[in-house]
Amino acid sequence: MEWKPDKTSKKAVYKQIAEYIEQGIADGTFPIDKPLPSERKLAEQYGLNRSTIVAAYSELEANGLIERKKGSGTIISKDIWGLAKKRIPSWNRYIERGSFQPNMPVVQRIRKESEEKHLINFASGELSKELMPEDYIREMIRTNEFTGNLGYDHPQGNIDLRTTIARHVKKYKHIITQPASILITSGAQQAIHLIIECLLKPGDAVVIEDPSYHYSLPIFKSAGLKVFRLSVGRNGMNPEDLIELHKKHQIKMIFLNPIFQNPTGTLLSHYQRKKILDISSEFGIPIIEDDPYSLISFTEENASTLKSLDKNGNVLYVSSLTKIAASGFRIGWIIGPTPVIERLADAKQQFDFGHSTISQWLGNEFLRSDYFDVHIQMLKTELKKQRDVMANSLQEYLQEEIDYYLPKGGIHFWCHIKKDIDDFELLEQAIKEGVIYTPSLTLGTKKGYIRLTYGRVNAEQIHIGVKRLANAIRKSSKR
Ligand SMILES: Cc1ncc(COP(=O)(O)O)c(C=O)c1O
User: Fold this and answer.
1) Predicted confidence (pLDDT) per residue in 339-360, tens digit
2) pLDDT tens digits, one per residue of 194-205
3) How confident is the model at residue 368 (pLDDT cuts 50, 70, 90)?
4) Ligand 1 near 215 CB (within 6 A)
5) What does the pLDDT look like over 14-38, one tens digit per residue?
6) Is 187 in the pocket of ligand 1 (CB under 6 A)?
7) How far is Cα of residue 306 from the mean position of the Cα atoms in its chain?
8) Are 242 and 201 in contact (CB under 8 A)?
9) Considering the domain boundaries, does residue 43 fall inside one?
10) Which residues contact 479 (CB under 8 A, 6 or more apart)?
């Protein structure tokens, strides 16, 4: 409730106002870098005579808390604030001046709304509880002795986990590597951040896919990079576009999510994979292969990673447990030339002294267990069912209104809305109807697209969610 002076109190009204403003300066209600409200405004706000406000301000001025300058209003004293010589940092200014950029406001809004239980969540890029190996982990904790290390571990991460990852990528991704060439990170997200911070400089030109998950990450902008976007077609990025761009801008790094790309679900064709690797070798441009989804494949189609085709060490390979097990493990990994890995490990140590050893122990036990295969088979079967329910629901409720690409793996549908709608309005309308998704604004430039993620919702929720979305699309007016 808004504060008001108590006219029935024994304390003079001007004193109450002076104390309220003094308290408000101390707790930040009145930011130190902004002028205080004018006497006229406060008088109107509290229904008082202006002379009462003048008296309150005079008292604060006499105490050295504020300064009144003709023409520039009433400001808070900056040097010495208050008799106790307290100084208050201007938090607002600090919040705005840091070089590390905040998330886009629309991303912040979606995150906040996603916590609302009544909303059907097609926005979060993670798995539902039912698809995570919760029972296995619970049983493992109950029956196994903790054999991990509770001290700071190796800067590159626990050696047992790195050994297991080397075996894992050999078996599932045909990547030949060794523990010395692996760094454990806090998810793929931290892997990307470390690469940007350690291997690139402000002003460097980099390429990302358009649309892409990478577009939504302010860490590129925070690092002062020049980000160029190359459009993703049915078969991924066009290698010719890459050559053209490099000739103009001297590209320093290429970020790709070649298998079941987020958000389009596309697979970079074998021909394009080879061609992009050739370009990387010809011009000496490193490729960051972000590969969180390749194990969730619903097809027999060849989906070999770029890293498995990379004979010269041009690719830094990034993956994690998030999309194949559980986001809460926060376990990711980077595979690359050992000196690069050591450089990144040195930075990781500066950031956080390494990843939690308990999480690494659990991740290792899970990844090396016989259960891992069983889990992946279950995941593929269930996610394929969820994908099909989403495709059927889209057919049932939105056949006329949208086009989509049927993903052959991963957890995302990329849909084009044929009707000319306002993207912000549709999002607001969808939230009102009880469903949330990721709008294209956060993933690239194309308007009129939405990403629907079917990883965190069950069949019933998918059906209801698509129906709600259809209502929202019908209710949204034209641009
Ligand atoms: C392509 C891609 N890369 C990286 C990440 C980050 O995942 P995490 O840090 O949880 O491993 C995501 C998550 O949505 C993603 O889709």
Assistant:
1) 999 999 999 999 999 999 999 9
2) 999 999 999 999
3) very high
4) no
5) 999 999 998 888 888 888 888 999 9
6) yes
7) 24
8) no
9) yes
10) 420, 421, 422
Q: Which domain holds residue 453?
A: 105-125+374-477
Tell whether 305 and 207 lie within a shared domain.
yes
Answer yes or no: is 130 within a domain.
Answer: no
Chosen domain end from 369, 386, 404:
369
Q: Is the CB of 469 under 6 A from ligand 1?
A: no
The CATH number assigned to the domain holding 414 equals: 3.90.1150.10
**Atom of ligand 1 lying closest to residue 125 CA:** 14
Centre of ligand 1 from the C-alpha of residue 256, in Å: 12
**Ligand 1 atom closest to the CA of 330, numbered from 1:** 10
Of 369, 394, 418, the residue that ends a domain is: 369
Q: Give yes or no: residues 276 and 343 share one domain.
A: yes
Is the beta carbon of 292 within 6 A of some atom in ligand 1? yes
Q: How much is the average pLDDT of 295-320?
A: 92
Q: Does 207 have pLDDT greater than 90?
A: yes
Q: Which atom of ligand 1 is nearest to the CA of 212?
A: 1
194 and 294 in a single domain? The answer is: yes
The encoded tokens of residue 53 equal: 């406000």
Of 360, 330, 297, the closest CA to residue 126 belongs to: 330
Any atom of ligand 1 within 6 Å of the Cβ of 188: yes
Q: Are both 80 and 171 inside the same structural domain? A: no
189 lines ligand 1 (CB under 6 A): yes
At residue 121, what is the residue type? Answer: N
Overall domain count for the chain: 3
Identify the residue whose C-alpha is closest to ligand 1 atom 4: 188
Distance CA 160, CA 166 (A): 10
* Ligand 1 atom index nearest CA of 331: 11
Centre a 10 Å sphere on the Cβ of residue 365 and count the other Cβ atoms it contains. 22
Residues 110 and 208 in one domain: no
Asked if residue 452 has pLDDT above 50, the reply is yes
What's the CA-to-centroid distance between 78 and ligand 1, angstroms?
A: 44
As a whole number of angstroms, the distance between CA 214 and CA 233 comes to 17
Q: Is the CB of 327 under 6 A from ligand 1?
A: yes
